[in-house]
Amino acid sequence: MTLPFEVELPVRYRDMDTLGHVNNAVYATYLEQARYQYFDRVLGVPYDEREMVLANVEIDFRRPLTLSNRTVRVACGVVELGGSSFRMRYRVLPDDGDDPAATAEAVLVAVEDGQPRSLPSWWRERFVEFEPGLEYDDPSTR
């Protein structure tokens, strides 16, 4: 599956663990940075007005990244829309090729006053506009 959005991020010395690999927790930060930029582009609203929380994230580590990887590319996209949530898929790619260092999925939930709420229809519209293959059941048409 092609993921429609990609960012390039620096690999920093502070990202390393004692084995000289990018620490596993840093991958979550890479995903977060890509997600932030994705929403900036697709939704076009300030981060503090997005009203969503990360409910789940799963990362499959495939091969280590090291400081010799000066940058990583993180590809991402929304792959499923639910009533109040949506699922994103990611690939973390080293600067030396297209063999992923990691793949990941995350579930985000729209919230209001700390409680789940329906995904705003304009979010759905923008996700589908940006990712034409994405489908959803529009509750307003029932």
Automatic annotation (TrEMBL):
Annotated Pfam families: 4HBT_2
InterPro entries: 4-hydroxybenzoyl-CoA_TE, HotDog_dom_sf
Keyword field: Hydrolase
Membrane-crossing segments per the record: none
Superkingdom assignment: Archaea
CDD domains cross-referenced by the UniProt entry: 4HBT (cd00586)
Record GO terms (molecular function): fatty acyl-CoA hydrolase activity
Entries under SUPFAM superfamilies matching the protein: Thioesterase/thiol ester dehydrase-isomerase
Family affiliation: Belongs to the 4-hydroxybenzoyl-CoA thioesterase family.
Protein name from the UniProt record: Acyl-CoA thioesterase
